[in-house]
Amino acid sequence: MSTPQPPMPQTAAPNWQAAPGSSYPSYTSPIPVVRTHLGHALASEWTKIRSVRSTMWTLGVFVLLVVGIGLSVAALIAGNASEGSLSKENPLSFGFFGLLLGSMCIITLGVLTTASEYGTGMIRTTVTACPSRGRVLVAKSIVFFAVAFVVTLGSALLVALADVSMLDAREPSGQEWLKGTLGISLYMALLGLLSLVVGSIIRHSAGAITIMIGVLLAPLVIALFMFSESLQDLQQALFEYSIPNQLSVFYSQSLSNSGPSGWDPLWIMLGVTAAAFAGAYALLEKRDV
Amino acid sequence: MSRFSVGGMIELEGLTKRYGEKVAVNNLTFTVRPGIVTGFLGPNGAGKSTTMRMILGLDHPTAGQVRIDGKRYDQLKDPLTYIGALLEAKAWHGGRSAFNHLLCLAQSNGIATRRVREVLETVGLTAVAKKKTKGFSMGMGQRLGIAGALLGDPRILMFDEPVNGLDPEGIHWIRNLMKSLAAQGRTVFVSSHLMSEMALTADHLVVIGQGRLLADTSMADFIERNSRSYVRIRTPQRELLLDVLHTTGITAVEAGDEALEVDGSKAEQIGELAARHGVVLHELSPQQASLEEAFMQLTAESVEYHAHADALPSEQQELRRQQQQWGSEWRRS
């Protein structure tokens, strides 16, 4: 009979005597021991963010939205505007619509950077490899912020150049150039960073994305339905401090004349993100993973 | 705490973890030593995984402490080259390839990329290194987890239920791997709920039940103490036989189902006695209690999820039911 024997234990006599008594032979690894630091965590997080498809998808859709809508709006306006009607306009401001929609992609990627680790169980591997949890959060933040900033800046710059060349509008000032490209990109990257931090607090992708979309849209939508006279001040504040309006401030075309102006939105977002970051940091140290 | 200069000791002292009312780990004190495979045995829900998570600093203990060569896990500057762990299966992002998963781990501890290829080779996943891990079978997932544990060539290795989902060939492989790692002088700490598995691999045994320490003994001692041999006897003339045995100084106990049991290997002696006194025997069989039975006896009091609770007195049943409810709540949260 040639039935294959299952490779089952033939260990009839396990070698119990192998256990050493009091002298412990210690193992020494040939692998050099390295004191880990933030640089290692950064390299690790960079590998993580570039090696999952969701990064490519969210950023791909983001570029498509920002550049696609930006160029379409520019072409549409260039084709339909009557002679001289745009002469007082800041041409960069037409990049606003694409970025407003694109912000959803940045939010999604930000949340996924942290929350997806909880969904998959990866977080336990991550924290085992780097027990300094704060370092993990800092590394994730730096890598994500850099990626989001560079991609937004590239897209916004492309749309800005197209707007200036295609539209028969006035020449934007240096300050307007700075706000419409660098400023808006920093703002978008911060919005994404806030999402990352919220993802770390909520530890659930869908939940955190819902919260962030709510933060993005709810103030504006709620304000729309505040018909009562007594709520007018609140309505005004909700309009002015809603994220879409803060975005438009970078193109100096706020929905109202009061409220944040100049570089204010950037400082507001910086403050909110810093506070959320501190909370996430404390929670991360305290909670079990 | 540690007075030993050698590396690779895991020391638990009064380690306790509470989840609300439920005590998952209750005042555990024991030491895991290098050079041997230490089996960590307990029924499902006994607190094995929670204990391992606390060793790795993933869960914070409610009380007590755990030290690795005198340090808390989060004080280790080179965690992966010090201690490697296989926790639960599939603790990674399914969209990432096996290679990239190990690469990001390696980078976080400054381990060379070359080492990633080495461990993939060791666990036999080289062919699927570039494939997304979400398509991996349970056995492949287990191998990837083991690759992650071996990545830093650490002096301490912890495996939580490593044979789960492995085929016989894989089980054989992991057994030999653990033994050879221990033979190199490393500390190997492996959990299981199967006594038979531990009997084949472990040199030392730590048994817990409902979070409490039930035994901390060498495997040889455990076997010696627990593999009780006895003789099972059935006879239609039980009063006569009992008298005969009594006069010879042999104690027989009732074993239910009309049978008697006598401790030790006295089958021949009893057979001869019965023949001499003309006692009819229907059965005279030498028996050996298995390690599995010994383990079940040891943990019987503390098994959390009984398959049949109907044999228990009602008071105890009520208690069990409560415990089960706590357990399920804890799982859900």
UniProtKB/TrEMBL annotation, chain A:
- Region (Disordered) residue ranges read 1-20
Superkingdom in the source lineage: Bacteria
The entry lists its GO molecular-function terms as:
ABC-type transporter activity
Give a yes or no for keyword Transport in this entry. Answer: no
The portions of this protein that span the membrane are 56-79, 91-115, 142-162, 182-202, 209-228, 266-284
Q: Does the keyword Transmembrane apply?
A: yes
The entry's keywords: Membrane, Transmembrane, Transmembrane helix
Protein name in the entry: ABC transporter
